[in-house]
């Protein structure tokens, strides 16, 4: 079944490309930047419209009329990205516009991308409240792109919502989609291009550092998060006071070409940047969700939509059963496997409301064919899991937090 998507704040189309590759159908995309819309159309075809999404009276009914299955988008992040005291202005308000458009159209799914710092913003708190009130269960995961197919330690917040779900319903599936090792620049160079010769020979590259960060890295590392000025040559003050951990002097390191930076963001080499000017291209590349990362997230969403995955049970559920209910190890194993069995019967869906979950399983044909005693055991295990989940302190080590911890170590 086609999952029809509307993308808001589509930029040049990084997220759309990844989702399309995963199998989604993009029915409409919006951005107010003419150059981004031009590049989007050139590569992804017709559905990009130039429109200011601030105008939700105009856009809301249009999006609702399209009846998408999913709305995705990366609202502008500059108000969250800046250092020091952040004033949340019109660009932060676009996060609320995103949420309002989702609430108006009410697709089954939404996918929002932003910088990790957005999670502490007032704009996201307001947007979140609207989405929860509209009935979305939320998975809020901070993902490191280098574990999802691009040689770049780009960390971004992804919020995935699905109507009626329990929070964190997709976190374990996102964690399971990670590669075991971060991707390095050397692995990107396995597919050599004509402008890679210097980079491969020199074996180290310079990228404009963030604040007092490191500028030089070897090919056996990932690049840092791509920004508009990533491929700048080292400035005199950096050459005079290099970072102590630079593996070679910045003057001897290769600087990256625009084509290489685009590949570090996961764009294919035949992507056409139109004739929009070099600075605009640098900006679009930096703005993008790396297509392989969007594809990986898209695959995770489609697998759940198709009932092919179920959320992982947390280890502490077993501990809780032992401590509060006196369950033996064998009884804990049984209870867990029954929860998993019930969830498979429910096609991986979790429910914000326990009564709805029990009602839903009663209408599943496979469940009704089970012996009475087995059905009763499955119901009991679902109730126990629900009871455990209801106490927030029981859920302290959520999968998304485990991922964040692993990524912090890998960074
Ligand atoms: C982070 S970028 C999105 C990049 C995109 N997700 C991708 O993968 O290529 C944010 C986009 O929002 C657009 N934008 C900002 N404010 C807007 C508004 N009021 N209406 C429409 N688009 C807007 C910008 O032009 C920019 O392309």
Structure description:
The protein is of the alpha/beta class and 411 residues long. It folds into three domains: 4-181 and 289-308, Rossmann fold; 185-275, no CATH class; 315-396, no CATH class. It is built from 19 helices and ten strands. The strands form two sheets. Strands 3-2-1-4-5-7-6 form a seven-stranded mixed beta sheet, sandwiched between helices. Strands 9-8-10 form a three-stranded mixed beta sheet. α1 (14-22) packs across α13 (291-305), α14 packs across α15 (329-345) and α15 crosses α18 (372-390). Residues 9-15, 31-33, 36, 52-54, 74, 76, 94, 287-289 line the site of S-adenosylmethionine.
Relevant terms:
three-stranded mixed sheet, globular, seven-stranded mixed sheet, 3 domains, disordered C terminus, binds S-adenosylmethionine, 411 residues, alpha/beta, single chain, Rossmann fold
